[in-house]
Design goal:
The complex is a heterodimer. By secondary structure, chain A is mainly β. Helices cover about 0% and strands about 55% of the residues of chain A. Chain B is mostly beta strands. Chain B is about 0% helix and about 45% strand. In chain B, the strands form two sheets. In chain B, strands 2, 4, 5, 6, 9, 10 and 11 form a seven-stranded mixed beta sheet that branches. Chain B has a four-stranded antiparallel beta sheet with strand order 1-3-8-7, with no helix packed on it. The termini of chain B are far apart. Classes of the chains: A mainly beta, B mainly beta.
């Protein structure tokens, strides 16, 4: 079946540091890939997505590239801010009704 | 535009009691989802509605969980009787259309359930 494996957390960085959160997936065919973010006290929000191989999703300075050869969709940001502190979830969409399958989430804390 | 509304935000019950959660999706969104998020895990889909019909309920524990979406708008998720392992956050999400790979899902703040 479909599955998503995320980098274990929590991750703690200093402001302006480079961020990478690893995500790999298992799925048949060509799933769509997503990163969702959950800020403290808020609901999940879509951060970015990519629907086919080699696509790059980007938003708010975050980027992720759909790599079919390595079945990966790693999240990166060149310079994190304190306001980026949140839980990040990698997800894929596959199947007849295209439901989302989520990874376990990575807690990011950015210190000033 | 108002977001997805859920109530209550928190609920504490004893095992074997029953509980119900309510969700009001974004106006005009045809598709509604209920997810269960156990602490330390990602959300897991329980049931998906398209208007007032069920698209997928394969992961819903039907011996104790039930959900309905009368009139294709609001939805209610019920647990009866609750077990300790039902302690989780229950998330409701909605989207304009059925295809998750094309349409963004918008999530509510969730209902945090603790079963003692």
């Amino acid at each position: 079946g479909n599955s998503v494996t995320q980098m274990e957390g929590p991750v703690t960085l200093s402001e302006e540091a480079f961020l990478t959160i690893n995500c790999t997936y298992t799925a048949t065919g060509y799933p769509s890939l997503f990163w969702y973010v959950q800020y403290p006290g808020e609901g999940l929000q879509l951060l970015l997505k990519a629907t086919k191989a080699d696509d790059k999703g980007s938003n708010k300075g975050f980027e992720a590239t759909y790599r079919k050869e390595t079945t990966s969709f790693h999240l990166e940001k060149g310079s994190v801010q304190v306001s980026d502190s949140a839980v990040y979830f990698c997800a894929l969409s596959r199947g007849s009704a295209r439901q989302l399958t989520f990874g376990s989430g990575t807690q990011l804390t950015v210190l000033p | 535009e108002a977001g997805v509304a859920q109530s209550p935000r928190y609920k504490i019950i004893e095992k074997r009691q029953s509980v119900a959660f309510w969700c009001n999706p974004i106006s005009g969104h045809a598709t509604l989802y209920w997810y269960q998020q156990i602490l330390g895990q990602g959300p897991k889909l329980l049931i998906q509605f398209q208007n007032n019909g069920v698209v997928d309920d394969s992961q819903l524990p039907k011996d104790r969980f039930s959900a309905e979406r009368l009139k294709g708008v609001d939805s209610t998720l019920k647990i009866q009787p609750a077990k300790l392992e039902d302690s989780a956050v229950y998330l409701c999400a909605s989207s304009l259309k059925r295809e998750a790979h094309l349409e963004t899902q918008y999530f509510g703040p969730g209902t945090r359930l603790l079963v003692l």
